[in-house]
Design a protein that fits this description.
Blueprint (H helix, E strand, L loop, with lengths): L4 H8 L1 H8 L4 E3 L5 E4 L14 E6 L5 H7 L7 E7 L2 E11 L2 H4 L8 E5 L14 E4 L10 H9 L8 E8 L2 E10 L3 H7 L6 E4 L36 E4 L6 H13 L2 H8 L5 H13 L6 H4 L4 E6 L4 E6 L25 H4 L5 H18 L2 H20 L8 H23 L10 E9 L2 E2 L9 E8 L4 E9 L7 E5 L14 E6 L7 E10 L6 E4 L6 E6 L10 E7 L15 E7 L5 E2 L4 E3 L8 E2 L5 E2 L4 E6 L19 E6 L5 E7 L6 E6 L5 E6 L14 E3 L3 E5 L6 E7 L5 E5 L5 E6 L3 E5 L6 E7 L2 E7 L2
Parallel strand pairs: 3-8
Antiparallel strand pairs: 1-2, 2-22, 3-4, 4-5, 5-6, 6-7, 7-9, 8-9, 10-11, 10-12, 12-13, 14-15, 14-16, 16-19, 17-18, 17-20, 20-21, 20-22, 23-24, 23-32, 24-29, 25-28, 26-27, 26-30, 30-31, 32-33, 33-34, 35-36, 36-39, 37-38, 37-40, 40-41
């Protein structure tokens, strides 16, 4: 039997594939419909449900004097760190902070920076190499920074944080918020890579310029200081860069932001600045009345990251111990917008469309995290978690009575700040309501289109003040700018009848394997053109689909065998034991496979092209070495195989999927081969490199444990399920809301009727295995 159901299965395993390809803070919802960035709870080192104890031991009796002397130079001294019983040898420790260090004269409780890679470059604490323990200077509640960062996480890139209890040389040093460093580890969690350029908006150590009390002078606020990049260096600290001339990107961004006429500002600056993330960033700082912020100081206490994948700058939130100050609760939601030295507000808020986007984002945050019913229980939880520890903290800067009373200060701030913002006349305007947003292909809702096939997006839009315009934003990349098509209610855009309140527009077709993000914007017909979005969290919370490839109805060229863990079995032409892939022509005809593609990445289906002139004779084989070493010959690919499991795809020059393979943990020096040769299921067995997989001894065969194949998929009236796993396992078919519709005991071969199931997307589960099933009628 031709096993082409395997091809569909691999592409249906959407959520498992994306988890291997996207940053840690990205997730695609289980139904495959939405991409959400930043909404996941902290785990591991920054799990806020627990308070870890950290034990620092210094070998020097004068360690405090050494760190005091090293404060200005930021030089570490060695210590031993113990967390959860694990010893981390020779970590580096130093004092950190500015005002929290210099102005804290009443207590020895200083802030600490700990580097686990001080001596041992690969040493990390639960995946992280740098820890910041902050002393809560200026925060009698001990809660502000932890609360601020946890509330912002679903809206902007922000550091993780959690409480720890610190001991130094056996002495209790009290409770500390442990806050993530905005370094490469952090960047990889929020961006596709950490290969961009990261600045801290603050003067470099020892620099004669920058800093100081002249808040609002714009020196580090992305103001244009001139074409000479040396003019920026006294005011920004370059933290990391992978390019030769990184400062040019900062200067270009500043120039476009500050010198482009307002009429064309949006279209011009979006190529240099992530506008939407910037507006969320400004809304976050404003909502929490962040004293140490871009919007207040206009020159420091934020980071700026230039993203190499998009060529755009993003401001990053930093330092949250001074938020929610009662005296600042009356800030205007457009605080400092009239000051030219604050261009992110002064310029962006002056563009009506961007102003309304900012208002919509700030409204979303107010409604989702800034009500007493939502915020107060979270504040109470943090308070209860550290109450006893603060009471017994012998080093704390403030008294226990001050800690107790400050909780109500925070709660009062929530109420006052919310009322201030919602009382602003621009925030009282009613925005359109967007409901029932969906996309279709082949008249099937929430069914991803095939390669180069368009998708039709529709939504119901209602508004008490009329509708000015509805826009569909879409992108064919997982990050970066969106394109924009207007949506119409005219009966000519797959939107139903004209004037029925349903608006429609098309997303054009894209290549197979493309992530397509989309969301909807609706503007009212009032003078302000008040805007709303669906999803409300756009552009970090958006709808998404992945373009499926055309799948061949049959193919003569198949993936016949792989070895993903080659230690001593077969050497390549350079004498190296590398991974290999075997293709097989199971027909009686010669086939030219020039221009075919092999890839292990669904996001890059044209990753490696089979060289020109590659001919597979009838019943012939071709070996490709998966070793990332093209210098060793034309049949050495630019990717390797994973012995712990991954996927492999074979496509023809037109992008049609011919064959694919998924595997789990492999056995070193064993093949993973089709048995019978060219047609059967895959088996772990003695390899048959460049030859027939049909072995003569049954002892050489090892069936793949716990596998499940479903076909046809998409299905109509029935499916066949082939299962290899534990006897007695229950197989269930669930709909997208988690209801079990069908249950039965697993057998090796099962014919299941789907005639009574409506068209849609379902999940089939058998024990720990699951796969998506599409039913079409």
């Amino acid at each position: 039997m031709k096993q082409f159901y395997l091809l569909v299965l691999s592409f249906c395993a959407f959520t498992s594939i994306q988890a291997q390809s996207l940053p840690k803070e990205f997730r695609i919802t289980p139904d495959g419909r939405k991409l959400i960035i930043g909404d996941q709870a902290n785990t591991g080192l920054y799990d806020q449900s627990q308070v870890k104890s950290m034990y620092l031991t210094f070998p020097q009796t004068n360690y405090w004097t050494l760190m005091t002397n090293n404060y200005a130079s930021q030089t570490d001294i060695p210590a031993t760190l113990v967390v959860d019983g694990v010893v981390y040898d020779s970590v580096g420790v130093r004092f950190k902070g500015q005002t929290s260090y210099t102005m804290n004269t009443s207590s020895p409780k200083k802030s600490f920076n700990i580097s686990t890679d001080y001596i041992h470059s690969n040493q990390k604490l639960m995946g992280y190499k740098t820890m910041n323990l902050n002393n809560c200077f200026g925060d009698r509640s001990f809660i502000r920074e932890i609360f601020f960062q946890s509330q912002l996480k679903k809206y902007v890139p922000v550091a993780k944080s959690a409480y720890v209890k610190l001991y130094i040389n056996g002495e209790n040093w009290g409770v500390y918020p442990q806050v993530q460093q905005l370094n490469g580890d952090y960047l990889k969690e929020w961006f596709l890579s950490n290969n961009g350029t990261n600045w801290r908006a603050d003067k470099p150590p020892g620099s004669p310029g920058g800093g100081g009390p002249n808040w609002g002078d714009g020196t580090a606020a992305i103001n244009y200081l001139g074409a000479d990049t040396s003019l920026y260096k006294p005011y920004y600290t370059l933290k990391s860069a992978d390019k030769l001339f990184p400062w040019e990107d900062l200067a270009k961004t500043a120039k476009v932001l500050n010198q482009t006429p307002l009429a064309t500002l949006r279209d011009s600056v979006q190529n240099y600045l992530d506008i939407d993330r910037t507006l969320w960033f400004l809304a976050a700082e404003n909502l929490f009345s962040d004293d140490d912020s871009y919007i207040h100081k206009g020159k420091m206490d934020y980071y700026a990251y230039w993203e190499v994948e998009t060529g755009r700058m993003t401001p990053l939130e930093y330092d949250g111990n001074s938020v929610m100050t009662a005296s600042l609760a009356a800030w205007s939601p457009f605080y400092n917008e009239t000051k030219v030295n604050y261009p992110l507000m002064n310029k962006l808020f002056a563009v009506p469309e961007l102003r309304q986007r900012y208002i919509a984002h700030l409204k979303t945050m107010v409604n989702e995290v800034f009500t007493s019913a939502i915020a107060n229980p979270k504040l109470d939880t943090y308070y209860a978690q550290i109450d006893t520890m603060v009471q017994n903290d012998p080093k704390k800067i403030y008294t226990y009575a001050q800690f107790q009373s400050e909780l109500q200060v925070l709660k009062n701030f929530i109420t006052t700040r919310r009322n201030t913002i919602m009382g602003n006349i621009e925030f009282t305007q009613t925005a359109p309501v967007i409901t029932n947003a969906e996309y279709k292909s082949n008249a099937m809702a929430w069914t991803a289109p095939a390669a180069m096939q368009s998708a039709q997006v529709t939504a119901n839009i209602t508004s008490t003040n009329g509708i000015s315009k509805v826009n569909l934003y879409f992108s064919n990349a997982i990050v970066g700018n969106f394109n924009r098509n207007e949506m119409y209610d005219d009966g000519a855009h797959n939107d139903g009848a004209a004037g029925d309140g349903i608006f429609g527009a098309d997303i054009p077709g894209f290549a197979a394997g493309t992530y397509v993000r989309w969301y909807i914007e609706a503007a009212g017909n009032n003078s302000a053109k008040t805007a709303s979005y669906e999803p409300v969290g756009a552009e970090h919370d958006v709808y998404i689909y992945i373009v499926t490839p055309l799948v061949a109805a049959g193919t003569d060229v198949v993936i016949n065998e792989i070895m993903a863990s080659n230690s001593t079995s077969v050497p390549d032409n350079a004498g190296e034991y590398d991974d290999w892939i075997e293709l097989y022509n199971r027909s009686a005809n010669t086939i030219d496979i020039s221009g075919y593609f092999l890839t292990d990445n669904i996001l890059n289906l044209e990753k490696w092209m089979i060289p020109a002139g590659t001919i597979l004779p009838a019943n012939g084989y071709q070996i490709i070495w998966a070793d990332e070493d093209s210098a060793q010959g034309m049949f050495h690919s630019n990717f390797k195989l994973s012995g712990s499991g991954e996927q492999l795809y074979l496509l023809d020059p037109a992008g049609v999927l011919l064959d694919s393979l998924s595997w789990g943990v492999q056995i070193t020096d064993k093949g993973f081969a089709r048995v019978p040769n060219g047609t059967g299921n895959f088996m772990i067995q003695q390899h048959t490199y460049n030859g027939n997989n049909d072995l003569t001894s049954i002892a050489d065969l090892k069936p793949v444990p716990s596998s499940m194949f479903v076909y046809p998929n998409p299905a109509k009236d029935h499916v066949k399920i082939r299962y290899s796993g534990d006897a007695g396992t229950i197989v269930s078919i669930y709909n997208m809301v988690g209801q079990s519709l069908v249950e039965f005991v697993a057998e090796s071969e099962m014919n299941v009727s789907t005639a009574d199931l409506p068209a849609g997307v379902y999940i089939i589960r058998a024990g720990a295995l699951s796969t998506k099933l599409v039913i079409r009628k």
